């Protein structure tokens, strides 16, 4: 920060007045920021418009695991054989979990 050395200097009385006012403003700022708010509780109270999907029915066709796919023993997702990182005692692990 640049300092203007040509500016008139303040007296001791002016400095003490400024510091008292500054302390008062800091005290107000600190008390306002010291409130502990649990964000998860606050977020539970929000309801987004159109967010109620309880009456909706999804129609998704589920395909069985194909011959060139495997189920990872760590994340339990179905991956293509090209993502097989290792196989230990018959337990297949994908590249994402092996990393």
Concise summary:
The protein has helices at residues 12-33, 39-44, 95-98; strands spanning 69-71, 78-80, 84-88, 91-94. By secondary structure, it is an alpha+beta fold.
Structure write-up:
This protein has 99 residues and is of the alpha+beta class. It has a domain at 64-98: Wheat Germ Agglutinin (Isolectin 2), domain 1, CATH 3.30.60. 32% of the residues lie in helices and 15% in strands. It has helices at 12-33, 39-44, 95-98, and strands spanning 69-71, 78-80, 84-88, 91-94. The strands form two sheets. The chain has a two-stranded antiparallel ribbon. Strands 3-4 form a two-stranded antiparallel ribbon.
Q: Could you give the order of the helices and strands?
A: HHEEEEH
In the CATH scheme, the class of the domain at 64-98 would be Alpha Beta
Q: Given the C-alpha coordinates, what overall shape results?
A: elongated
Widest β-sheet, arrangement of strands: 1-2
Break the fold down into its secondary structure elements and pairings.
Layout: H1 12-33, H2 39-44, E1 69-71, E2 78-80, E3 84-88, E4 91-94, H3 95-98
Antiparallel strand pairs: 1-2, 3-4
Protein name: dUTPase
Biased composition (Basic and acidic residues): 1-13, 21-30
Region (Disordered): 1-44
